[in-house]
Amino acid sequence: MNVSQRILPLRLRAVSLAAGGRKVLDRISLEITAGPATIVLGANGAGKSVLMRLMHGLLQPSTGTLEWADARAPRVKRAQAMVFQRPVMLRRSVLANVLYALALARVPHEEREAQAMAALAEVGLAGLARRPARVLSGGEQQRLALARAWALHPEVLFLDEPTANLDPGATREIETVIKAFDAAGTKIVMSTHNLGQARRLGDEVLFLHQGRLVERSPVETFFRQPASAEADAFIKGELPWA
After folding, report:
1. Helix pair angle (138-150, 109-122), 10° resolution
2. Exposure pattern of 160-195 as b/e (b: 16+ CB <10 Å)?
3. Would you list the DSSP string of the chain?
4. What tens-digit pLDDT sequence spans the chain (242 residues)?
5. Are strands 187-191 and 38-41 parallel, antiparallel or unpaired?
6. What pLDDT, in 10s, does the model give residues 141-192?
7. Euclidean distance between CA atoms 193 and 197, whole angstroms
8. Residue 39 near residue 205 (C-beta atoms within 8 A)
9. Ramachandran angles phi, psi of 127, nearest 5°
10. CB 13 within 8 A of CB 29
11. Burial 11-34, CB ≥16 within 10 A → b, else e
């Protein structure tokens, strides 16, 4: 990809979001750049999922600004993807789910099946291409959601607690795919409540507390020497859940 066509960096300036009379995000300023995998940590209610949806474009800030380097709407939509804790499966085959994502991205029709099968092979689902997507296990459905993203070769991939509902075996499979995205040059921005997973997959940590960005630091520094009392309490399991 030509550097001039990149959508990163993503800049948030004093972004706040209010809902139901409560400030869910409070004056967050940060810059998301290409490269290191970014992990968003914080207790339940800290604002992790809201921040992820806001960066992806599903929500709009109440105040503040959010700007991509290349702000053209078609480019932003095409160059990023998001995978949720509970992925939505179309009432179609595994292959058709990926083909649909490629059709939405306006990939030429004659190229879609080859790209879709390559993506399914990458996540270990090529043998299930003709199976109805909704009969897959939870882990397989999450891998299918990742295959839909992989087929688009996104510059940025947002992952909102993608293994929260999975058993350890399925979690390892998902983490392997996430590492493959990272190795391929996709910028990973991922929220998780799993501290071990944050260490395994992350290069830097964004720590949220009650809607505020309290700390940003390299992952090892965050766990070895947190700079805030809130982060220290969270790591020790002492921070009350909001």
Report:
1. 130
2. bbbbbebeeebbebbbebbeebbeeebbbbbbbbbb
3. --GGG----EEEEEEEEEETTEEEEEEEEEEE-SSS-EEEE--TTSSHHHHHHHHHTSS--SEEEEEESS--HHHHHHTEEEE-SS----SSBHHHHHHHHHHHTT--HHHHHHHHHHHHHHTT-GGGTTSBGGGS-HHHHHHHHHHHHHTT--SEEEEESTTTTS-HHHHHHHHHHHHHHHHTTPEEEEE-S-HHHHHHH-SEEEEEETTEEEEEEEHHHHHHS-SSHHHHHHHTT-SPP-
4. 444 578 999 999 999 999 888 999 999 999 999 999 999 999 989 999 999 999 999 999 999 999 999 888 788 888 999 999 988 899 999 999 999 999 999 999 999 999 999 999 999 999 999 999 999 999 999 999 999 999 999 999 999 999 998 999 999 999 999 999 999 999 999 999 899 999 999 999 999 999 999 999 999 999 999 999 999 999 998 755 44
5. parallel
6. 999 999 999 999 999 999 999 999 899 999 999 999 999 999 999 999 999 9
7. 8
8. yes
9. -70, -10
10. yes
11. bbeebbbeeeeebbbbebebebee
**Parallel, antiparallel, or unpaired for β 156-160 and 80-83?**
parallel
Q: What's the token pair of residue 167?
A: 């058993």
In the block, residue with structure tokens 């649909």: 100
Provide the residue type at 140 as one letter.
E
